[in-house]
Amino acid sequence: MELNNEGGKLTPRVRLAMRLRRLRERKGLSLRQLSEGVGGYSHSYLGRVELGSQLPSEALVNMLDDFFDTDGVLADLLEMVHDSVIADYSRKIVNKEPEAERIQVFTSSLVPGLLQTPAYAHALFRRSLPDESEEEVHDRVTVRMRRQRIFHGEDPPYYWAIMDEAALRRPVGGAACMVEQLERLLRAADRPRTTVQVLPFARGAHPMLGGGLTLMTLKDGATVALVESFDSGEGADSPKRVVQLTDRFDLARSLALTDDESIELVRRYLKGYEDDDDS
After folding, report:
1. In this protein, which residues make up the domain named HTH cro/C1-type (predicted)?
2. Superfamily of domain 12-84 in the CATH hierarchy
3. What is the pTM of this model?
């Protein structure tokens, strides 16, 4: 991929690539010399970053900022890239995830984003955003996986996920992808601060058919909400609206299987996908 500016507007990805190239050229360094200066990251990897065909890792960006003494400029640009791939309507809510004490999620047809594997997320983005380049899809997957770091700290949020059975039944990415994804769900359910439930087809209609809901309780006690459909969303933080949405979540939870029943259903679907993958 060559650098482009999408109709005259420099994207954060292009700005990052161009800034890195200028920094290197001002020092009179080849890509191989830069590779040696930043701990052996391959010159081909650095070349792809300069062309904008691959995003650098955070570790590389931090090393480059130190090497060029740029006071975090490259890290700031990388953060802008990550922000740019999150939908405008959800960015404000998503950016609060590191501050959350509790996250409650309902999804009507997909595994929740914070529980997705890279392969599952890639399959979703590739199919739902057919006009985007492979690099853009990769950026979206990278950001989604990056958001999952909130579970790896010393004080992760309590996470309660409820999904419609359709999320298990729909073979996103094929059988092998679903095997990996459902194994990931089972591991997540084993975490002490994570609950996974399934709302089965047998319960009929429920109050959030065709949509998704995130309720996020922050460290200051406030709760914010995000309602999503397939290509739009609505953030909410007014107490009245949050209570209305919480009532919907609670009703869906009352219809869902228990934790143990949900895990058993996930295991049955997993066995089915394993059989399909072996055939």
Report:
1. 20-75
2. lambda repressor-like DNA-binding domains (1.10.260.40)
3. 0.80
